[in-house]
Write a structure and sequence with these properties.
By secondary structure, the protein is mainly beta. Helix content is 7%, strand content 58%. It contains one helix and eleven strands; from the N terminus they run ββββββαβββββ. It has an eight-stranded antiparallel barrel with strand order 1-4-5-7-8-9-10-11. A hairpin with a 3-residue loop joins strand 9 (114-126) and strand 10 (130-140). It starts with a strand and ends with a strand.
Amino acid sequence: MDTKNFKVNNEKSLVEWIGRKVTGAHNGTIEVKEGTFAFENNNLLSGKFVINTKSIKILDIEDAETNAQFAGHLASDDFFNSDQFPESVFEITHAEPGDNNIYNVTGNLTIKGITHPVDVILQIVKTDNVAVLDAKIVIDRTKFNIKFRSANFFTNLGDTLIYNNFDLNVHLVAEAI
């Protein structure tokens, strides 16, 4: 068995987020704190990455005061409670290789101290020294106690409703260690 370990380069990696509401959407970025992946005989064996919830940035709001207010709201208990839970983690529990560098991955996603299994399609382009991993993770925020303006918990929201699902577009560059 030939096992090779890779460490995520957080300066070259990034997570982009998109949240949608009735009247539109917001988007931004979140920093990757750390991560590792292991390959056995060139197939993904295991992996884990951590994002820093205190690093959430909003890219679509240009007014500095409005942007800061929204960022503060995302960091509050209505959303990610970043002071109490500064990290969110995705850890692979099973990876099934497919065609064209695609893996069907099941993993445990932890947000706000709450863990749920998530299925993800992961694309990996790997050389001996670098592995680039890309995935789109669709998350139902209500499973992680993020209920603010969700129709599952509130009525008569009208155009203030925020959809339950949000997207994380994950781009990780990992280097052999």
